[in-house]
Specification:
With 179 residues, this protein is of the alpha+beta class. The chain is 32% helix and 30% strand.
């Protein structure tokens, strides 16, 4: 298996880019190029090349692998200096103020491998492509749930946040995804 992984990695990453964008009409060539470059940039930013080898190991071990992708917008509160310059008859006057602001620290794609044992598929379907839904289970803090809920990812997140823990620690809690 370990002999195959470098060869498979090379086969996947040798294509530049490792995907194909094809327009439907002859006039779509410019849009093809823009979409291709945007996808290439997003894959680079999300760390796709670092994920290929672990994904290949999962593929060779279990016969499939799942990569979860999403758009992440992260913010932090930071102290920001603002300089305001005014000109009057005495010259230039500078006023420096400090304010705490929400600053975007990351706005871009993210991806991660899904554990095959955490991945679930609609049992009424004969294949993943025909499934009504697919999903994965994961452990998240209340802050992470609230942040995703405020971004519009989950529609019932407030019910979960006010819910009292029950005596059964293995109880399943579900969030409804808006997509």
């Amino acid at each position: 298996r370990e002999v195959l992984i470098p060869r498979l990695r090379e086969a996947v990453l040798d294509y530049d880019p490792p995907f194909e964008v094809v327009g439907r009409e002859q006039m779509d060539v410019r849009q093809e190029l823009q979409i291709r470059e945007t996808l290439r940039y997003q894959l680079d930013k999300a760390g796709f090349d670092r994920m290929v080898e672990p994904a290949l190991r999962l593929l060779l071990t279990y016969g499939f692998c799942v990569v979860k992708t999403w758009w992440s917008s992260q913010t932090e509160k930071r102290v920001v200096r603002e300089v305001k310059r005014t000109i009057d008859k005495n010259g230039v006057k500078r006023v420096i103020t400090r304010k705490e602001k929400e600053v975007i620290t990351y706005n871009g794609p993210k991806c991660r491998l899904v554990d095959p044992f955490s991945f679930f598929v609609d049992t009424n379907s004969s294949s993943v492509q025909e499934s009504t839904f697919v999903g994965d289970s994961c452990v998240m803090t209340y802050d992470e749930i609230e942040a995703l809920g405020k971004m519009g990812v989950y529609e019932n997140y407030q019910e979960l946040l006010v819910e009292e823990p029950k005596s059964d620690p293995y109880r399943t809690r579900a969030l409804v995804d808006r997509s």
